[in-house]
Design a protein that fits this description.
By secondary structure, the protein is mainly alpha-helical. Helices cover about 70% and strands about 0% of the residues. The chain has one domain (about 25-235): Heme Oxygenase, Chain A.
Length: about 250
C-alpha cells in the first residue's frame, strides 16, 4: 500500500476479500498508532498539551454533523437517509438530549478552556482546519459509496476509546469520568454505525474497482486523522506552534 491507495497486487474479487483489506488498513494505519496518542494515553503530556489536543479535536467533532448532512444529501434512497440521520442526532443532540458536541465541550471546559474560544475555532492549527475541510469535500465530491466507506474508521474506534478512557483517568489528575463522557458514549454508538457502513459497502461495492474505491476511501480517512496528530506533535511536542494558534499557559 502507498500513502494514497492500496496499490497493486491486492485481490478484491469478493466482499470478504475487501473486508479483510479494510481490516488490514485499520490495523496498520489507524491513528491509534500515532506517537501523539501514545504520549496522550500514557500520561506523558502536560495539561497544556492535552488542552491543545482537545481544542483542535473539537473542530473535527463539531464538523461531523456537517459531513453527515453532506452524505445524506447524496442519497435518494429514503431508508439510507433515515439510517444515517441518527449520526447527526448523536453529535448535535436533540431537544432535551445532550449530544456529542456538548459532551466534547464538557471535556474542554473541564480542561480549563473557555467555551467561547473553543467554539470560535480561532486557535486551532491550520492543518487541523485543512484536514477536516478536506473530509467534508471528499464526502461531497466523491461517490456516495466512497462517502459511506470513509466512515469505516469507526470499526476501530472502540478499542481506542477504551484505551483513552483508562489511560487518561489513570495518568492525569485533571481528568475525571464526567468530562470523559464523550468517549464512554461512543463505545456503543461507534459499533452500531460501523456495522451499518460495513454491511452497506459489502452489499453495494459489486466490482473489484468499486471495492478498491472503498478501500482507498478508508485510506484517505486514516490520513485525515493521522495528519491532525502530526500537526499537534509538531506544534505542541516539538514546540513549533504556528502564528496565531493556541499557546498553552501551562508547560
Amino acid at each position: 500500500m502507498t500513502a494514497l491507495s492500496i496499490g497493486k497486487g491486492i485481490t478484491l474479487d469478493s466482499a470478504e476479500e475487501m473486508e479483510a483489506t479494510l481490516r488490514t488498513i485499520g490495523a496498520t494505519r489507524y491513528h491509534s498508532l500515532h506517537p501523539f496518542h501514545r504520549l496522550l494515553h500514557g500520561g506523558k503530556l502536560n495539561k497544556g498539551q492535552v488542552q491543545a489536543w482537545a481544542l483542535n479535536r473539537y473542530y473535527y467533532q463539531s464538523t461531523i454533523p456537517l459531513k453527515d448532512a453532506m452524505v445524506i444529501s447524496r442519497f435518494r434512497d429514503r431508508n439510507t437517509r433515515i439510517e444515517w440521520r441518527h449520526r447527526i442526532e448523536d453529535h448535535d443532540g436533540d431537544l432535551g438530549n445532550e449530544g456529542g458536541i456538548e459532551r466534547w465541550l464538557k471535556l474542554t471546559e473541564g480542561l480549563g478552556l473557555d467555551t467561547a474560544y473553543v467554539e470560535s475555532t480561532e486557535g486551532i492549527l491550520p492543518a487541523t482546519r485543512f484536514a477536516v475541510e478536506a473530509y467534508v469535500h471528499f464526502c461531497r465530491d466523491r461517490t456516495p459509496l466512497e462517502a459511506i466507506a470513509s466512515s469505516l474508521t469507526e470499526l476501530f474506534a472502540p478499542n481506542l476509546h477504551e484505551e483513552r478512557i483508562s489511560g487518561m483517568l489513570k495518568h492525569y489528575d485533571f481528568v475525571n469520568p464526567d468530562i470523559m463522557s464523550y468517549f464512554s458514549r461512543r463505545l456503543t454508538q461507534a459499533p452500531r454505525d460501523a456495522g451499518f457502513a460495513l454491511d452497506y459497502v459489502k452489499q453495494h461495492a459489486r466490482t473489484p474497482a468499486e471495492r478498491e474505491a472503498v478501500c482507498n476511501a478508508l485510506i484517505f480517512k486514516t490520513n485525515v486523522l493521522w495528519v491532525q496528530l502530526d500537526a499537534l506533535y509538531h506544534a505542541y511536542v516539538d514546540g513549533q506552534i504556528p502564528p496565531g494558534a493556541f499557546v498553552p499557559k501551562t508547560s
